[in-house]
Amino acid sequence: MKNIINVKQWFVSLALFKKVGMIVFVLLIMVLGIFKLIGSKKQSVQYQTTPVERGTLIVTVTGSGQVSTANSGTISTLATGVVSKVYVKDGDEVKAGDKIAEVDLDLQGQQNANQAMSSYQSAKNNLDTAKANMFSTQSTMFSNWDMFMQIAQNGTYQYEDGSPNNINRSLPEFHIANDNWLAAEAKYKIQQNVVYQTQTALSAAWSSYQQTSPTIYAPISGIVSGLSLQEGSVITASTNSNSAQSSTKIANVKTKALPTVSINLTEIDVPKIKLGDKATVTFDAFSDKTFTGKVVSIDTAGTVSSGVTSYPAVIRLDVESNSILSNMGASASIITETKDNVLLIPMGSITKQNDTAYINILKKGKLEQVTVETGLSSDSQIEVVSGLSEGDLVITNATKTTTSQSDTKSQASPFSSGMGGAMRIGR
Q: Alpha-carbon distance 258 to 294, whole Å?
């Protein structure tokens, strides 16, 4: 009985041993497979390069802003009533003083027009009076001048050779004649200024009358746009914050002046630009088009908003375009410097350490680090003064690649990214 039990235990032990052996065998096969897989993998570095090129480096300053309204004016009126006639339409070209429309004035409109006409007539009378006084003072001046010349050329006050007798010219008679002439001349000049003043007042009175007149006139020459009137339209009075009547806008007149764009610059960028600098401008409304222009004004006083200082610069475009409208959003790049025939590389390919610039290049299939001297730079490119030659392959990016029969894994190297050709070097 005891022998039977020992035989059973032996068979159990034998089965357990076989099972353990099988597990060990499987593990051994797996380990060998892993080592084989690892041994079959290869690592390589793939370099992305760009050649050193010779070209023109352009340095720019950028800013954003909007189209100004410097090349357009507003047609407005203080007249109130019903529009009886419209003489123009959108797109028509008008000259300053041309009729735009006629208005049948209401009672308030008639009162305003009569008051404006009365002021105009009073200003006209003042001008006529001022001119009459000027003629009178002019006559007095000439009379006094003639009297003075007769005394000054008299033998008492002048020698035979025409030189002045300064001793006798100190007598009261000579000084009185001289002073009368000078006083008359001064009064004439004063009266001339009075005439100029009354002429200005007359022009202002006429402008005021035109604003209240039943006829609406074009204030400047140009192309009519945004006309809101039609026959039968009613124009009513409106008041401003001071309770005074404000004018009603009728339309715009766009002149043939070239459009201007006001760009806001930072305090860092504004010292870099100067009048006459070339610029390229794009508009939010049609970003696919680029316009050229030049800087015509720089506001160095600047403005402060929320603690941020900005300096407006005005760019005048080189061409006129009907598609460019007032207050459109715009972006500009102002060219501050250009340099021709220089060696250029991507800005991101430079590595600096202790004020020394380094470049990684690919030479005969191998990576090589060289020291370079750099010059002018833009946002994307930098000039190489020495250390590189045209055509050298600058490494802009490197990627470590691990390959096997079943997969490929890549790991980026800490080079800066850039555009260019690629070359794989095995390790």
A: 11
Rounded to a whole number of angstroms, the distance between the first and last alpha carbons of the chain is: 71
Judged by DSSP in three states, 333 sits in strand
Task: Give 153-199 pLDDT, tens digit per residue.
Answer: 888 888 888 888 888 888 888 889 899 999 999 999 999 999 999 99
> Looking at 87-164, which runs of residues are DSSP E strands?
93-94, 99-105
Would you mind telling me the total number of residues written for the chain in this entry?
427
Contact indicator for 370, 359 with CB cutoff of 8 Å: yes
Q: 349-375: string of b/e by CB count within 10 Å (b at 16+)? A: bbeeeeeebebbbbeeeeeeeeebebe
Question: At the top level of CATH, which class does the domain 60-69+256-338 belong to?
Answer: mainly beta
Backbone angles phi, psi at 364, to 5 degrees: 55, 40
- Measure the CA–CA gap between 263 and 317, rounded to whole angstroms: 13
Number of other CB atoms surrounding residue 254 within 10 Å: 22
Which has the closest alpha carbon to 346: 318, 380, 317? 380
For residue 104, pLDDT over 90 is answered with yes
The domains of the chain are located at 2-40, 47-55+340-426, 60-69+256-338, 75-254
In one letter, which amino acid is 67?
Answer: V
Do residues 293 and 261 lie in contact, with contact meaning Cβ atoms separated by under 8 Å?
A: yes
Residue 298 CA to residue 270 CA, distance in Å, equals 8
**What CATH number has the domain spanning 75-254?**
1.10.287
Cα separations in angstroms, 354 against 182, 346, 368: 80, 21, 19
Chain center to CA of 381: 24
Backbone dihedral angles phi then psi of residue 193, each to the nearest 5 degrees: -65, -35
Question: Distance between CA 225 and CA 243 in Å, rounded?
Answer: 29
What is the token pair recorded at 49?
């390069």
Q: Which of 194, 88, 182, 218 is closest to 135 using CA atoms?
A: 194
Q: In angstroms, rounded to a whole number, what is the distance separating the alpha carbons of residues 58 and 232?
A: 59
Q: Would you identify the CATH topology of the domain 47-55+340-426?
A: 2.40.420
**C-alpha 333: how far from chain center:** 9
Residue of 398, 419, 422 whose CA lies nearest to 410: 398
Higher pLDDT, 356 or 264: 264
Say whether pLDDT at 43 is over 70.
Answer: no
Q: Residue 362: enclosing H or E segment and its boundaries?
A: strand 356-363
97: DSSP letter: T
- pLDDT for res 414: 46
